[in-house]
């Protein structure tokens, strides 16, 4: 039998793989479609449970209600600023720490590596971290959402391992031409590390975009809230609508637009996940390559 046609067992294996991947795709896609369908369906259809993945009786009132809330726009801007600031600081500071550790003749490399390794396994805990941030004057500031997590030991080790995989001859040639370490890092190392930088930029953006707990314990000013805390507020409004304690102004607006709190929640979820959905395809080619780049050299 020709190898190109394959045996009956190999064909069955391929068919089973295709069916399995289709099932996984359906399982992952269904919640996404359901959220969109509920967000643009009328109140009656949603309340009766007729909406699955196909919208019924189209109604965009939920989006109108959400987009009229000034706190949503403010939190959206805050989250974008937090994400951009986290990416810049995380990539910049991590690279600045990892590059010296990748150089063989750097003094103090072992001591710094041991210190970083310890921080991977032990930390002060939530209360000491809170007290530290409070004593540093970061409470209820924009910086509290960016600075505490901008350098991680794991990220540093991945960057270091990747930098060690870059040919030493390139650095030696640059030294001979009169370049210093800063020039080498920004003109040679960074251009060769696009996949690594894109991968960790995506990780940082997604982590910052989904972060809500730090904002919950460190921020009291609503004007500094990220989008996830606003989503949490809408979730509490949903609970209040069940118990009858819902804000009357919002309740009247929902009645005028013929939507319920579930549709409003779904609309806000769609608005929340939209930027990540747009960004990922542009970084996907780097992401697939960059996931294993840190394992080039042990």
From TrEMBL:
<protein>
    <submittedName>
        <fullName>Carbohydrate ABC transporter permease</fullName>
    </submittedName>
</protein>
<keyword id="KW-0812">Transmembrane</keyword>
<feature type="transmembrane region" description="Helical">
    <location>
        <begin position="111"/>
        <end position="130"/>
    </location>
</feature>
<keyword id="KW-1133">Transmembrane helix</keyword>
<dbReference type="Pfam" id="PF00528">
    <property type="entry name" value="BPD_transp_1"/>
</dbReference>
<dbReference type="InterPro" id="IPR035906">
    <property type="entry name" value="MetI-like_sf"/>
</dbReference>
<feature type="transmembrane region" description="Helical">
    <location>
        <begin position="80"/>
        <end position="99"/>
    </location>
</feature>
<keyword id="KW-0472">Membrane</keyword>
<comment type="similarity">
    <text>Belongs to the binding-protein-dependent transport system permease family.</text>
</comment>
<feature type="transmembrane region" description="Helical">
    <location>
        <begin position="12"/>
        <end position="33"/>
    </location>
</feature>
<keyword id="KW-1003">Cell membrane</keyword>
<dbReference type="InterPro" id="IPR000515">
    <property type="entry name" value="MetI-like"/>
</dbReference>
<dbReference type="GO" id="GO:0055085">
    <property type="term" value="P:transmembrane transport"/>
</dbReference>
<feature type="transmembrane region" description="Helical">
    <location>
        <begin position="264"/>
        <end position="283"/>
    </location>
</feature>
<feature type="transmembrane region" description="Helical">
    <location>
        <begin position="142"/>
        <end position="162"/>
    </location>
</feature>
<feature type="domain" description="ABC transmembrane type-1">
    <location>
        <begin position="76"/>
        <end position="280"/>
    </location>
</feature>
<dbReference type="GO" id="GO:0005886">
    <property type="term" value="C:plasma membrane"/>
</dbReference>
<keyword id="KW-0813">Transport</keyword>
